[in-house]
Amino acid sequence: MTKYQEYARKNYKVGEAIDEMWHNDIQAECTQMNLEEAERVARERIKEVVTSVADINAELAGRIVVRVSFAGSLPKTKKLTKAEKAIVMKLESEINENSAKLGLGLSGEIADKSGGLNLALVGGDKTLWASKEYDALQKFVQDRRDEFASFGIPHVKFQAAHVVDITRIPEIEMLAEKTEVELRKLVEALVASYPAQITPEAVNLGPLYNERDYAAVETLMGRFTFGYEWLSFGVPEELKQFDVRIYEKAKLKAQETWKEIEANGVLLLRQTVSDLVSTLTDSLTPKDNGEKKKFYATTVTNIQEFLATFGRRNICNDTELDAEMKKLDQLVSGIDLKAMSSDTKLRESVKKDVETVKASLSKLLVNVGDRSIVLE
Predict the structure, then answer these.
(1) How many Cβ atoms are within 10 Å of 312's Cβ, its own excluded?
(2) Coil, strand or helix: which one is 109?
(3) pTM confidence score
């Protein structure tokens, strides 16, 4: 250890600011001390979580089960009720009658006599409200789900339990804690703007406005939630001393549960890959009239981004899927995205290769079977 390192070890307190005026070696040692402390805290937290679930199997296997869930939504449109349709028909009749008297054609919209109601009769829906705050909240949830998915926690069935590497516990908890804070701020922004955003639609809807179509503002904070928890499926050793038969039975049940959870993880990961590949295949398939569809680079870049994080998603060590992912990686890494928009031969070639991978993935989905479970 150099004198600079010794100085840092004796005088620097972990977590404090590192002065840029210090010698480079001192700064480097201080940085190293902070990293060591972060690793120590992470190890302690991993130990705490594993201990809290009282599952020795988790520590031995290096894997643990986590459940993450988002909940909450508000309707932006609503189907017309029978009574509301009657109102619309009556108004339409009055407008048609007045238009005929004046020699005017139909406008395609209905407006009440005061000009308040402005409702396009498309699918029999009425617009309840519009909110950029609500849209931002929904986008946040989708983006954050994608972040959790990169840890091997897919959201095809997002409230299911999933197996993750215990070394990822600190990272997952950090993201979860960050999510709780950020979600609350977004909901608070929605609550603040909500009443004012309902008012314009109440005027536009006229006689179709119904106060009961809208959630009370005081309920909004509790409507949007996020939660996570670490789960245990081990068997306490104390049970063995109490009754060996019951212990063995419980142990067998725990093992079966683990198998189901792993099968769930394998199925969801395979389904996610299959969906990505299907999207690419569909984009390269001509329309019914033979016309070429517009090509979007994201159909390829989304797969490339998924491939970049596949290693840590594949916590259940699905070797069959891993083999298909290697083939897919070779395929998409060599695609000329600019040429895909106009080069028909290239599109057909890529489509043929992708369909081969898709066929293999379909077989994998059949093999694993629909064994997914949701733990209440």
Answers:
(1) 15
(2) strand
(3) 0.58
pLDDT, tens digit, 9 for 90 and up, residues 138-181: 999 989 988 888 777 766 444 556 777 788 888 889 999 999 99
Contact between 164 and 67 (Cβ < 8 Å) = no
Sign of CA dihedral 46, 47, 48, 54: positive
For 306, other C-beta atoms within 10 Å of its C-beta total 20
DSSP 134-156: HHHHHHHHHHHHHHHHTTT---T
Segment 264-277, tens digit of pLDDT: 777 778 888 888 88
Q: Which residue has the higher pLDDT, 302 or 96?
A: 302
DSSP 53: T
Nearest-angstrom CA–CA distance, 182 and 140? 9
Kindly give, in sequence order, each residue whose CB lies less than 8 Å from that of residue 131, ignoring residues fewer than 6 positions away.
76, 190, 193, 194, 197
Tell which residue, 29, 52, 75, 6, has the closest CA to residue 232: 52
Whole-number Å distance between alpha carbons of 358 and 274: 7
For residues 168 and 314, give the distance between their C-alpha atoms in angstroms, rounded to a whole number.
Answer: 13
Residue 119, phi then psi, degrees to nearest 5: -125, 115
If one compares 352 and 342, the residue with the highest pLDDT of the two is 352
What sections of the chain are H helices per DSSP?
3-11, 24-52, 56-61, 82-102, 132-149, 169-205, 220-223, 238-242, 244-284, 298-308, 310-313, 319-333, 337-340, 344-368
Q: How many CA atoms lie within 13 A of 230 on its CB side?
A: 24
- Exposed/middle/buried for residue 313 (C-beta within 10 Å: 0-12, 13-18, 19+): buried
Q: Are 156 and 271 in contact (CB under 8 A)?
A: yes
